[in-house]
Amino acid sequence: MIQFFQMTLSGISQGCIYGLIALGFVLIYKATETVSFAQGELMMMGAFGGLAAMTWLGLPYWLAVLSAIAAMTLFGVILERVVIRPILGQPAFSVVMLTIGIGYVARGLITMLPNIGTETHVLPVPYKDEIWKAAGLVINVEQVVVIGATAVLCALLFALFRYSKLGIAMQAASQNQLAAYYMGIPVRGLNGVAWGLAAAVAAIAGLLLAPITFVHANMGLIGLKAFPAAVVGGFGSLPGAIVGGLIIGIIESLSGFYLPDGFKDIAAYVVVLLMLVIKPNGLFGEKLRKKV
Amino acid sequence: MRFRFKTDYEQDIRLAKHGGHQFWYGALMVALLLAPWVIPEYWLAQLTFVLIYSIAGLGLMLLAGFTGLFSLGHAAFLGVGAYTEAVLTNAGLPFPLALSCAAGLSAAVGLVVGLPALRVRGIYLGMATLAFGFIVEEGLARWDSVTGGNSGIQIKAPEIVGTTLSSGTQFYFLCLLITILATLAILNILRSPTGRAFVAIRDSEISAQSMGIHLARYKTLSFALSAALAGIAGALYAHKLQFISPDQFNILQSIDLLLMIVIGGLGSVHGAFLGAIFLIAMPQAISIFKDYLPDTIGQAPGLQSVVYGSVLVAFVLFEPMGLYGRWLKVRTYLETFPFYRKGMFKRQKSFQKSDRLR
What is the model's pTM? Predict the structure, then answer.
């Protein structure tokens, strides 16, 4: 029984990471209705940025974290301005291919850095290797930090989209871009804000994931597992992304323990296929119909 | 300026539409037939790879370019075809039978994947196919008894009517024959009502339904045909490499196939071939130019990723119609010379259409 709780806890923490990356996807989708396959690579760059801030610039932990997040936000805004804005209005597939290309370039560039790109690094965080023992469970502090940070971030973003003018404007721009232009919403500027926010969320995810999986150039491939999380939760819903991530994380963790070998890797994808067959719009997705 | 004067309906639907087409495609055929005696063996092998990838590209072009269903897991069909061919050839079946079984099994798998496609669209379809691709890859790796698991399978040379095709030249001619047949098949499908139904589904599903096109039937047909072609390409791929393992059919291979058709030009048969040429020529070009670059850039492991990624980004930003699109623009300039107008291919300013309300 203890094993079950232990597995569930590690599943929740892994699920929070998936949820954070999925949050980035959903943010960009909610604001611009484009799917970005570059989130995983942005996360990897955020982790490397944190590593650079902590080891070479020698900044203390909190300052390094904030500067990494700020740098990634700026990068996200610049990326949107330079690469995404010119194709505003093109079919969704073009944007998907573009973000895949951006991911390739980011991964390649990091790998090209001499001596840094090809190795695995350890991120020096203050809570490294600490363990709490509670009621027979061994709890890794890193996992608790992940869960806590995810909860806070999700609450903040939910409040942003529901109650603030900026959030409502972003949603409007994604639902009907032409109408948003008519209403005087600065759609292009908002796109930049959305990408900056998504890059910041990815950076936070990278900094939280780094103590667990270490910093290396292929970190971004976790992004591929975060897609099922976003789909399960429903692409237009922020809490849905976290819930989807939790579901995928827990199922993956439990199937790694209880099911035969090999099911752990495909558990996420089986879940997403089931979800698409049963409820194509995800758990919290909205079903919109247009009358012709 | 070129004027094409048509006197006959048959001229409209003919595959080679005018004298120029006949001449240049005839010259291409002669060049391909003479290739084994003209170009060195290494480049002949690369040409064989181009033909194999263009068959797979034709399949994906039919699915993504002409029916508008984007599949992010197409390498799964490639893998299914490759492993079927491997298992059957090692069991002693002659090549034509093994190839048909590989194509048939891939088509069946494509049908299975296509069924959820009826309910989902857009990015959700991409996710479903992506998930499916991972599941197939993992399945191939775990099914030790049949597929040999992660250590892969060796494959014997193809055998037709008793003669074993073991030399590179013989295999090249086999691939060339299959490629020509596949291309003719695709071109015929596209000029038939089925092909027009596919294009109608791509352009607007609701209008296609109102014109009486049975969406479910044509979407699953498209998936099955595309998967069958990928299966054939996979079977030839297995014979070419003579050794296959599950990690050759992962997500990166799927993205390579997509890259191929996007760079080649989405929505044109030429695009599959141009994309395949690009996909095979790019690593060769990189390795040739590597020596001219300073060591830190040239010898770095990530160089190929960076080049692929930047070429893809550049094409999507500046040339969305791909390589074939660029050729179309050049050809239009030459055809309408000196009356070419500057804004002929200008992209219209468009506002994003919401996928959710389509």
Answer: 0.89
